[in-house]
Specification:
The strands form two sheets. A six-stranded mixed beta sheet has the order 3-4-2-1-11-10. A five-stranded mixed beta sheet has the order 5-6-7-8-9, with no helix packed on it. By secondary structure, the protein is an alpha+beta fold. Strand 5 (111-116) and strand 6 form a beta hairpin. Helices cover 20% and strands 32% of the residues. The chain is globular, with a radius of gyration of 17 Å. Helix 2 (37-49) packs across helix 3 (72-80) and helix 4 runs parallel beside helix 5. The chain has one domain: 4-Layer Sandwich (Deoxyribonuclease I, Chain A), CATH 3.60.10.
Amino acid sequence: MGRELKLASFNIQTGIRTRHSSDYLLKSWQHLWPCDRRFVNLERIAEFLRPFDVVGLQEVDGGGARSHYVVQTEYLARRAGFPYWHNQVNRRIGRLALHSNGLLSRLAPDCIYETPLPGLPGRGAIWVHFGQGESVLLVCILHLALSPRARRCQLDFVAEYLGGYDHIVVMGDLNCGSNAPELKRFLARTRLVDPIPNARTFPSWRPQRKLDHILVSPSLKVSRMQVYDFVCSDHLPIGVEVVLPEAFALAA
């Protein structure tokens, strides 16, 4: 049996703890202004993420004034003991907010790069290669647009890139459910599978929709999958454990 990896995806809403729909109004100021309570929530998130090997983050602040100029991806990496991290800034609101995606990893990536996604500025993807040669695990972390048309263009863009790889994980806030036509089209093109299609991740206090996904190629055996009852953001985190093919030799 090959190596087992624990993967997670979490939209952390920049550390704003949301427990009711009224919090969108009452805490809306925290999206632009600093709040010391944010660090309490980040500590909770770091402790939650500690058991995982690779984590994809969405709605991270990349060092704006609202987060006291702290790059939240780096902060979580240090507090949870991840030796490798990468932050991708996709949208800047002056010095107030730097909307970002993030990677946390206990494995040494062989290559990391980032691309903007098609459509209006502000959406992007992180691409991570673990391993070399034919034994490459490609992990893509992304946060898709709100409109179905934009999501279709973005997923088509991602599908074009994935064509040359056999071992793939795509994770993130896709802003659509498993039955959305654009996601069904993407799964058919890439042959990726959704191990937990009926899970619900949003809103966290009363989940009704699945917006957060971890999609895997058939070459990766899924041994466990779960939506975690961890109400900190307005999304619930999602996780899977996969077993890699025996040929993989990944650097720790």
